[in-house]
Amino acid sequence: MNFGGKLFHLAGTSNNGLLDWYFDPLPTNCVASWVCDGSKQSGKKNLAVFYRSCSFNCLFCQNWHFRETNIKRARKISADGLADVVDDETFCVCYFGGDPSTQVVHAINASKIILRKRNDVRICWETNGNMNKKFLEVAVKLSLESGGCIKFDIKAYNENLNIALCGVSNRRTLENFEFACRFISQRPEPPLVVASTLVIPGYIDAEEVYQIAKFIAQFDKNIPYSLLAFYPQFYLCDLPVTSKQLMRECVDAAISGGLKRVYIGNVHLLI
Question: Which of 78, 90, 142, 189 is the most exposed place for a label (fewest CB within 10 A)?
Fold first, then answer.
């Protein structure tokens, strides 16, 4: 938080995380579950780590409730404390939020401790990709070595549209996505890099999805791409749910853009 022109870490130190965590029984509703072995791990579980902070300010935020948290009462946990939560039934750890990019040092420290204790736990990320590249490289390598993935939530391809919807340019997201794709050849399967886009009526249409897909396909046509149905939330609560017709158009557009693995992530919301 900005106090008098200086930045202060609300958890006191980067070794503490402002977060919630919980266990999610596998198979789970993870956006990347359709290309992950975790979907076959009955009896195992995912440690879901929800960071209560974000570098984007999306008008359609699906997890906006974390913004209402009383900071003084928010849960703080050290990297060691989070690592201690992992048990013998933990198959993977997924950092999301909010976004893990804003507390990436904490997530990296916790991951390193976890992997020292258990070398069979997968480290995964769901992120807007808006982080310093040196931290991204560490995050990608942790996923690469552990069998996990990094899922980029590409909100839009058009920079002005991204600024209008999220308050931030998407240049760093797209640059970081390209950087992460350089590691794909080191482990093609299970997929290291995964992408997703929320299909928002009136904003993110087939043309926008086509541009995103074409961008992704230039690095690897086999990168899994999930299209997600929009549900009215936060400041865009007056919009309709994504229609089946719009989603079909977007799926066709993603394939036309060159991608071979396109999936609808939450088909049950379509109208």
Answer: 189
